[in-house]
Inverse folding.
């Protein structure tokens, strides 16, 4: 009987150790409020709180190419209650061009992908034409006079313009910003005519006619913009970028706990209410990858972006 009680106590202890959440959760977001990461963090955080009864704090900490947010997570107790709510771009793109005090592939543990967003090329309505072909013709007539914004240097929003320049022999001038919201504000105001941006942040302006979308970097046309051609359809299959958004932890968080958090969050994001809410915002459903599978995807993106940075001779800040 004593042996059985001891075994039961051990089992209960293990279950309690793997329960999540057991106290308030903090989602640290490496971008300003209002961006795609912040939007999803608030949708998911509301669901976590409703299901568990634990408060969820969304804590935007932009700056340092994501390093400020990442370091806050790395300094926290590795108990799974302080998590980085991020896009894969912060981990797989920016560290190649911004010096950061951590190693993406060894210091961090991907936990859960909760949605995907693809890259759009959008233009201000005042720009002549309404197609990529017309834009390129205009750029060739006015070399060096058109600029495009990105949400940060060294991201796919930067690479995509360089790829278009090289392919077509044009000279779009890159203007980096600190996050999507300030960049979009200038594009909507007509201060910058073009931008490569994620669907989630651009979609409201496209719907109201304040921006015109020219192409999307996805394998298939997106459900919310079915009339919009993919870059592959337009003849540019190399412009093919997706950004998964979800939760990443310190590598010190045990794999078993990461698996528990993964199952909780993936189930929440797949429930009918939040799934439709995220879809309406412009997110495509994630594939429900395990933390191990997500780590493989992150490594592949990291290595691909390293090759692009080298190919375009993008220098580290």
């Amino acid at each position: 009987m004593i042996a059985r009680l001891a075994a039961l106590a051990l089992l209960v202890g293990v279950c309690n150790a793997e329960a999540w959440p057991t106290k308030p959760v903090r989602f640290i977001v490496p971008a300003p409020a209002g961006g795609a990461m912040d939007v999803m963090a608030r949708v998911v955080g509301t669901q976590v709180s409703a299901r568990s009864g634990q408060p969820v704090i969304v804590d935007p900490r932009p700056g340092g190419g994501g390093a400020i947010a990442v370091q806050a997570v790395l300094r926290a107790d590795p108990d799974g209650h302080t998590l980085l709510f991020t896009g894969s771009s912060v981990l797989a793109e920016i560290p190649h061009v911004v010096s950061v005090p951590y190693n993406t592939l060894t210091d961090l543990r991907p936990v859960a992908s909760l949605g995907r967003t693809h890259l759009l090329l959008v233009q201000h309505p005042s720009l002549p034409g309404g197609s990529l072909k017309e834009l390129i013709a205009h750029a060739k007539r006015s070399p060096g006079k058109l600029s495009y914004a990105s949400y940060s240097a060294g991201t796919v929003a930067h690479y995509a313009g360089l790829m278009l320049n090289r392919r077509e022999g044009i000279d779009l001038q890159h203007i980096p910003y600190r996050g999507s919201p300030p960049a979009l504000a200038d594009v909507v105001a007509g201060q910058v005519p073009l931008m490569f941006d994620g669907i989630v942040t651009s979609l409201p302006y496209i719907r109201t006619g304040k921006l015109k979308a020219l192409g999307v970097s996805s394998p298939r046309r997106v459900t919310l913009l079915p009339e919009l051609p993919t870059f592959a359809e337009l003849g540019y299959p190399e412009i093919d970028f997706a950004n998964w958004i979800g939760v990443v932890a310190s590598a010190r968080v045990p794999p078993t706990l990461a698996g528990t958090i993964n199952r909780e969050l993936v189930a929440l994001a797949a429930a009918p209410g939040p799934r439709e809410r995220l879809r309406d915002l412009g997110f495509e459903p994630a594939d429900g990858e395990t933390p191990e599978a997500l780590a493989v995807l992150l490594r592949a993106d990291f290595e691909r972006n390293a090759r692009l940075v080298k190919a375009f001779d993008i220098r580290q800040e």
In short: Strands lie at 25-29, 56-60, 82-87, 108-123, 147-150, 173-176, 194-198, 212-216, 242-250. The first helix runs from residue 2 to 18.
